Amino acid sequence: MEHSQISTLTCFYDSYSFLWEDYKKLFNKYWLLNTHNVVVGETKLFKADNFDFITPGLLRDDFGKDLWGERMLCGLEKIKTPYVFTMLIDYYFVHDITQDFIEEQIEFLELNNGNKVMIDVHTPRAYRFETSVHPYYKFDKYSDYQTSLMPAIWKTDWLKSVIKSEDTPWTFEVDGTARMKGQDNKVYLNMREVPIMYNVIRKAKYIQETSGPIKWTEFKEKENLGDYSKYLESDIRNWE
Prior knowledge:
By secondary structure, the protein is of the alpha/beta class. The protein is built from six helices and 14 strands. The strands form three sheets. A nine-stranded mixed beta sheet has the order 3-2-1-4-9-6-10-8-7, with helices on both faces. It has a three-stranded mixed beta sheet with strand order 12-13-14, with no helix packed on it. A two-stranded antiparallel ribbon has the order 5-11. A hairpin with a 3-residue loop joins β12 and β13.
């Protein structure tokens, strides 16, 4: 039986379709919950027993701007649970995400009437906090990146309320936060010692060698991942 409190929503772009098989493999290996899993993309449709693909098309406004937000809202209409775990297609899980861990986050949100708990390591330049009881840190009402698309559990209705049709993933993180600054948004960070995922693609051009808990070359070999070099400007780039 699918989990009654949480579903998952993955944001997918046609141009990143070469990541799908490895994303699916690692999701199925490390996401240890039975959930309704929605993937919202553009036009490319993939078949997978435990994923519900939503392909609203290449939505653009009158000026040709990508309507990512409209596609996400279409995907959220498929979510019937009170909470949703969000991911991007270029975020790969690196270790087990257990039912106990996810339910602990939901319990925390319910106890604190929270709207979102992001699961990440601390990035001092991006986040400002007003209170903390480790590992949970409450975002200051004027903090940047309260709508960050790092892996997070959101109240489904609240996520619907803060996404606008004209948002792109990048403007949502900045403008989405700007729209809500100055009020208590009840957004939290669960600060991890190491990240739960590897952010594979950087700036849509290359793979960062150190963008997760282990080096990409080691991760790729360990998980027998594909060769993405023909799709990218550079397969591997070290931190400068």
